[in-house]
Amino acid sequence: MRFLAVGATNTLVGYLVFSAFTLWVFADVYLGYLLSLALSYVVGISLAFVLYRRFVFVVRGHVLRDFVRFVSVYLVAIGINAAALPLLVEVLLVPPLLAQLVILVATTLLSFFGHKKFSFRRSGAE
Predict the structure, then answer these.
(1) Which of 24, 61, 69, 121 is deepest in the core (most CB within 10 A)?
(2) Alpha-carbon gap, residue 73 to 52, rounded angstroms
(3) pLDDT tens-place string over residues 40-89
């Protein structure tokens, strides 16, 4: 339940940032939705790390190690997102905001398992 609450909050914030940049900041920029994507991930990663660490996985210590692992999981997610988004938008002609919603489903599931099994994993002694 905590993962769903934090994930929903983070996903909503990230999607709102993506939407705001796509609609108002980069609306007239070719492939501006990719710039919006990058900026939304910066905000999303920052918020998600604090929320997941504190409320979902409830771990202590190893902040730098956890952050490096956390970002590496998100690098996989943003790689998938950055490849799929232009494919949906440019090839299949799906509007950027709808395309991003579709992609969020897959990257959210990927992120959960990545964070659970890798980012915040602890051995029995920790």
Answers:
(1) 69
(2) 13
(3) 999 999 998 999 888 887 777 888 988 998 898 889 889 999 999 999 99
pTM of the model: 0.81
Q: Which amino acid is at 120?
A: F
Query: What is residue 43's three-state secondary structure?
Result: helix
Nearest-angstrom CA–CA distance, 115 and 71: 10
Alpha helices in 52-95 (DSSP H): 63-86
Q: Does an H or E element contain 19, and which?
A: helix 2-20
CA dist., res. 75 & res. 81, Å (int): 10
3-state DSSP percent of the chain in helix, strand and coil, to 5: 80, 0, 20
In angstroms, rounded to a whole number, what is the distance separating the alpha carbons of residues 101 and 68?
A: 26
Whether 29 contacts 35, CB under 8 Å: yes
CB 74 within 8 A of CB 43: no
